[in-house]
Amino acid sequence: MSESKGMGAKIGGALGTVVFVIVMAAVMAYSFSGTVKGMVAVLLWNGSSTLLCGGNQVMKIDGKKVDMTDTVIMAGGSCKLDLTNVEFKSKQAISCGGDAKVTITGGTFEGSDEAISAGGAARVTIKDATIIGGKEGISIGGEADVQVDGGSIRAEKAITAGGNAKIRATGTKIDGAVDKGGNAVVEI
After folding, report:
1. Tens of pLDDT along 162-185?
2. How far apart are CA 133 and CA 113, in angstroms?
3. Cα 159-114-178 angle, rounded to 5 deg
4. For the chain, how many helices (H) and strands (E)?
5. What is the arrangement of strands in the sheet containing 166-170, beginning at the earlier edge strand?
């Protein structure tokens, strides 16, 4: 009988160790995840230099105002970026590339050159935002896909699309030229 208790204790101890290792591995994986890295980067960002969102980072920014000379945010890799009611003013508000997924809700994006650029296979969804560009409002290329719902785009060239990029603007006030080249698709 005591041998079976000893064996049970050994199995229970081994099982406890295995569970502990699995739990610790999960905690470590989460702590090094893109979500945590993104949260930390956003918390540490003071808006005086370009915020980089890359790899598998996940970032959410709400209500922040930034006025600077460089690009405010560069999103690349498999970055997932959510911007809500922010006000960005710079030479270029946002530059997206790689396989970035960017969601913009409300806010104002003003760029003395261009407000928003998207290339690579970036996917950008914009809802009810004000986009103001000195030269270009939204500039897209590569395989980028941009959906704009509501809001407004104002620039000398409100939309510039090239490559195989696609942009759809629904219920959006467009003030400026629309320039399309290559195999780009522009639906307004």
Report:
1. 999 999 999 999 999 999 999 999
2. 6
3. 15
4. 2, 16
5. 58-62, 80-84, 101-105, 123-127, 145-149, 166-170, 185-187
23-61 residue pLDDT tens: 555 455 545 566 787 788 887 898 899 999 999 999 999
CA distances from 93 to 50, 115, 151 (A): 10, 5, 16
Structure tokens at 91: 């030479």
Residues in the chain: 188
Distance CA(124)–CA(136), nearest Å, equals: 16
Amino acid at 171: G
**CA distance linking residue 39 with residue 60, whole number of Å:** 7
Strands 136-140 and 123-127: unpaired
pTM summary value: 0.82
Report pLDDT digits (tens) over 89-108.
Answer: 999 999 999 999 999 999 99
Residues in Cβ contact with 183 at an 8 Å cutoff, skipping those fewer than 6 apart = 163, 164
